[in-house]
Amino acid sequence: MRRSKQGCVESFDGTRICYESYGEGLPLALVDGIGCNGYVWKYMLQHFSNDCRMVHMHYRGHGRSDMPKNTNNLSIEDLSDDLVRVLDDDNVDKAVLLGHSMGCQVVLETARRHGDRCAGLVPICGSYGHPLKTFHDNRMLDTVFPALYPLFVLAPWAPAALWRRLVPTRLAYEIATHFEINGRMINYEDFMPYLQFIGRIDLRMFVKMLDFTSRHTTEDFLPEISVPVLIVAGENDTFTPMRLSEKMAATIPGAEMIVVPRGSHTAPIEMPQLVNLRIEQWLLEHFNLRRVGKVVNE
After folding, report:
1. pLDDT at position 58, please?
2. Which residues contact 282 (CB under 8 A, 6 or more apart)?
3. Helix or strand run (H / E) with residue 140
């Protein structure tokens, strides 16, 4: 890793948005899921940072970034505008946008709102919109969420103590590996940073952002995408079922797709070598990636 930078920039509403930038070369913007701290990019950073500039943004209210004074400024559109401010601050004119989970919506929205900044798209284990309607391939969460929303927003202290006590624990990890992620393919030390981070998240912010996410879609924009697209799907992803990726691949002109066998919502850290080598092949075919990334600890 030849270059490392930590930066912060003021966004459209005065909120300070922070980021890390590693390496030089083809710019790749890494865009997280909600409540995430970049854990899913661990092996991708190792694989590509000798050959690419890897830019990782902290969402508003996440990590080193500030909470917006107006907590209504937590929409997918706001996050998209934040990403462009980060690229400006890091002197990146155009980047390949990689989004995981909710980050898929953010990168697709960025391609719609700021098409001149998008060289290509890699949606990973995510949806083009309305994710609560398809969570576990049923609408239960979408039905229950409106009833729970006032509790978390108006009285967030009520569930917060239980959240902070239970989420960042080995028990939560064991439950996740039995019901949500592939426990046979994921390492404890790769997933626990996510549980520890989300266990400290501001619940009011999290739920308000999730509400904006649930009402957002780029489905109408998919046929208009003209940049190269590689979609990464987990065969057994229950958060965002594989059929959503298949629909994107069928709707976006020229889109390519890779399915991670037995992969779940955390496929990039379950089978990192498969995912990284396929992305590398795609980058070599479509962009000026001059050197082959070095694989480290995969």
Report:
1. 98
2. 122, 228, 230, 256
3. helix 140-154
Blockwise average pLDDT, block size 10, the chain, 298 residues: 86 98 95 95 94 97 97 96 98 98 98 98 96 72 52 52 66 66 83 85 89 95 98 94 97 98 95 97 88 46
Which string of DSSP letters, residue by residue, matches 12-69?
TTS-EEEEEEE-SSEEEEEEPPTT--SGGGHHHHHHHTTTEEEEEEPPTTSTTSPPPS
Tokens of 273: 């070598």
Q: What is d(CA 91, CA 97) in angstroms, rounded to the nearest whole number?
A: 15
27, 53 Cβ separation under 8 angstroms: yes
Q: What's residue 55's pLDDT?
A: 98
Domain limits of the chain? 4-286
CA distance 79 to 110: 9
Q: Which residue has the tokens 């990782």?
A: 56
Torsion of CA 63, 105, 26, 287, to 10 degrees: 170
Class of the 4-286 domain? alpha beta
Q: Which of 100, 81, 99 is nearest to 89 (CA)?
A: 81
